[in-house]
Every structure is written in structure tokens, then in C-alpha cells.
Design brief:
The two termini are 44 Å apart. The relative contact order is 0.06. It contains six helices and no strands. It is 79% helix and 0% strand. The protein is an all-alpha fold and 165 residues long.
């Protein structure tokens, strides 16, 4: 038995050397470059194109909004809107932190959603703030907290996605 295993090992080594000599002048192509990404299912492709069409259809609507909306408006549930947005941010930050601490792959989803909420909050804080001290405070919060946290969440989402690929 021991002789058989040794002979097999020797035979395998001779085969490897032979292959190496044969391939010495050949072009080496990495395995991952040969593999093509799987094509999405027909329903997924249709849904994707439907979303693209909807996004393009919104472009003329943006012009209508930009030229037709009043410069000022009163919102009936203004405090509820801001408290709700900040509550969603808090939930997102907590969920993202817990998923990151656990090393959970779902971190990418939570981090991307939280980054989006933080950017939206920074945008609306700065664009709805009254001139003067309110605006300065909104810009300080956007640059000092919301946008850096959004960048961190975005980085976590991208790193998580690149690791799972």
C-alpha cells in the first residue's frame, strides 16, 4: 500500500511538471474573468426597465414642480414629519451598528438605507432652514454629523457588498 501511494504521488508530480512545461508560453486568464455574470430573469429585467422609464418620466415633472410650486408653504404636520425622519435615522443607525457588530451580511441593506436617510435629512435641514442662525446650524449639523455618518454607512454598505461578491 505504501508503495502504491508513493507511485501515485510521483505520477501526479510528473503530470504537473508536464503541464507546466506545456503551458509555459500560454496566456494565463484568471478564472473569475472567464465567468460571465448570470443574466437576470426576464421579470427582473422588465422591472428594471420599468423603473428606468419611470425615472425618465419624472424629469419633465421636475420642471413643472420647479416652476409651479410656491416659494413658501405651510405644513399641517411639520413636527411629526421631522420627528419621524429623525426616528427613522435613529432606528437605521442602531440597526446598522448592531448588524455591523454581528458581522451580518444584511448590514449592506441597513447601511444603504441609513445613508440615504441621513443625506435626505441634511438636504431638507439646509434647504428649509431660515436664513441666519438656523441656516448656520443646519449646515454645521450636515457637515459635522449627518453627511459624515452617511459616508460611513455608505462605505460599510459597499464593503459588505464587495465581500459577499
Amino acid at each position: 500500500m505504501k508503495g502504491t501511494a508513493g507511485e501515485e504521488r510521483g505520477k501526479t508530480m510528473r503530470q504537473l511538471v508536464w503541464c507546466d512545461e506545456e503551458l509555459a508560453g500560454a496566456e494565463v486568464v484568471p478564472l473569475h474573468a472567464e465567468a460571465e455574470a448570470p443574466r437576470p430573469a426576464r421579470g427582473m429585467r422588465r422591472a428594471g426597465w420599468l423603473l428606468v422609464v419611470c425615472g425618465l418620466a419624472l424629469l419633465p415633472w421636475l420642471y413643472v414642480l420647479a416652476t409651479g410650486l410656491p416659494a413658501t408653504a405651510t405644513a399641517a404636520h411639520w413636527p411629526l414629519a421631522w420627528v419621524g425622519l429623525d426616528a427613522l435615522e435613529a432606528l437605521g443607525l442602531i440597526a446598522t451598528g448592531l448588524l455591523a457588530a454581528r458581522g451580518d451580511r444584511r448590514l449592506a441593506l441597513a447601511a444603504a438605507a441609513t445613508a440615504t436617510l441621513l443625506v435626505v435629512d441634511a438636504w431638507f435641514d439646509t434647504t428649509t432652514a431660515a436664513p441666519g442662525g438656523d441656516f448656520a446650524t443646519a449646515v454645521a449639523l450636515a457637515l459635522g454629523a449627518e453627511l459624515p455618518l452617511a459616508a460611513l454607512c455608505g462605505r460599510l454598505a459597499l464593503r459588505t457588498l464587495s465581500r459577499s461578491a
